[in-house]
Design brief:
This protein is α/β, with parallel strands linked by helices. The chain contains nine helices and nine strands. The strands form two sheets. It has a seven-stranded parallel β-sheet, with helices on both faces. Strands 5-8 form a two-stranded parallel sheet. The protein is globular, with a radius of gyration of 20 Å.
Length: 269
């Protein structure tokens, strides 16, 4: 039996994975901005679930929620940093408030949860932090630069984190789902559009086939049950285009390697 701490558990992947964990006999601390949305989960699974109000941008509240979780279940085994939303808009269209609120939720919210659980996981000498960054954490599209910035930032922080906490028996994974039918469109905010970018939007060739979110459940269980989980796991059909992107980067680095090396300067004699 595992104890899960899941943010953004009122809908989408968070709700799906919380229910799946409970159905297999695990315990779940489910958090949402409005805990009343978690009432059906609490009614069905009773004492196996602890439903908490939590705004992940409130650092003090995050630490309080983690303390409540440990007080209820005694430990935390899996941390799913899932809370977040999408800010749509070309870079020039983004306001300072757009950017700050996007980073506050998607990046800083995950950081506060990570910092709050680390003392617990270190004392246990075990645990798994799963950062739900999406494929948007390793590839990018026009019109969602703020969202990408928040997810790429979390990926970079998590790379350092994994190296810092491995000696304590703590695993860190960036979980990178592609497009799924999760209702994510309801968690999107849009900046005011500038007429200059009408042609850019019209020329954007991006099109997506939406996956079945239920199909992710076995993959998530395989991840959290693995004795040596990967630092990154892509979910869905985005694997092939992501591999193409990285192969193109490798080709470019090799093409420009001579320029890169010469930029180091002559070694001292």
């Amino acid at each position: 039996m595992k104890v899960w701490f899941i943010t953004g558990a009122a809908g989408g992947f968070g709700a799906l994975w919380a229910e799946a964990a409970l159905r297999r006999g695990d315990r779940v601390v489910a958090t949402a901005r409005r805990a009343e949305r978690l009432a059906p989960l609490a009614e069905e699974f009773g004492d196996a679930v602890l439903a908490l109000d939590l705004d992940v941008t409130d650092r003090r509240a995050v630490f309080g929620a983690v303390a409540d979780a440990v007080g209820r279940f005694g430990r935390i085994d899996v941390v799913l940093n899932n809370a977040g939303y999408g800010q749509w808009g070309m870079v020039e269209e983004l306001t300072e408030q757009d950017l700050r609120e996007q980073m506050d939720t998607n990046f800083f919210g995950a950081v506060w949860v990570t910092q709050a659980v680390l003392p617990v996981l270190r004392d246990q000498r075990a645990g798994h932090i799963v950062q739900v960054t999406s494929e948007g954490g390793i590839r990018a599209f026009p019109g969602i630069g703020a969202y990408h910035a928040s997810k790429w930032a979390l990926e970079g922080l998590s790379e350092s984190l994994a190296q810092e906490v491995g000696a304590f028996g703590i695993h860190v994974t960036c979980l990178e789902p592609g497009p799924y039918e999760t209702g994510f469109g309801g968690a999107v905010r849009s900046s005011e559009e500038l007429p200059a970018y009408v042609p850019v939007r019209a020329a954007d060739p991006s099109s997506f086939r939406l996956g079945d979110p239920i199909a992710t459940i076995p993959a998530v269980f395989a991840l959290v049950d693995a004795p040596r989980p990967p630092r990154r796991l892509v979910l869905g059909e985005s694997v092939a285009p992501i591999i193409d992107i990285y192969e193109e980067r490798i080709r470019t680095w090799r093409e420009w390697e001579d320029v890169s090396v010469r930029a180091f300067g002559e070694p001292p004699q």
